[in-house]
Fold this protein.
Amino acid sequence: MTIADINPDTDVTQEDRAQAIRDTLRDAIVDRRLAPGTKLSEAEVGTLFDVSRTVVRAALQMLAFEGLVKTERNRGAFVSNPTPDEARQVFSSRRLIEPGIIHAAIEQLTPSTIADMRAHLTEETRHQHERGPSARRAEIKASGDFHLMLASVAGNAILEKFMAELVARSSLVIALYGRSGISSCGHGDHASILDALEQGDAEKAKSLMLHHIDHIEADLDLRNKEGLALKDALSL
């Protein structure tokens, strides 16, 4: 996403511009280029995207609704800074929701779906062996996308929406507390889960998913991580 994509001279509405800014900021937060606690100045964001504060405010409200941004009266908007208790709640929520997603998804799997997910795992592996910030961000996104693909296969739009929010919040928590600086999804867990799904073994897939979530949470160390400045994080 660049300034040109949402330039006010193009034939788009203010709502379109707000959505595009929301998407760019969300990607920067989820990709961990914007650290928890980073101030999102309406004036600075407006200048970077060449839009009014009204448009910026609408974008920030969308992010606040998702739990990725916190607004404070008389202080402005900040990337959410989840407490350790909130971090645990995110993963507790995933333990409740993702086994249900597996139960629903296993009934909907087709050879074509399995092939698509195998192709996705190949992309994950490729990103894991690449180097550099862009490759790292791609790996993080691919890891989260695996969980979103399962939610999509389940065919429940409400669950899919919940998972999108939980994956985003998980990325924020990992940004703040992750020891290894990676998503913790790249250890063969996804492949094992998919194998169990392909075999029609729902109970094994659920058990592997819970172990996988435990594995991610075990990587948290409750210490803050540094992020980039707003302008650098958005690469504008």
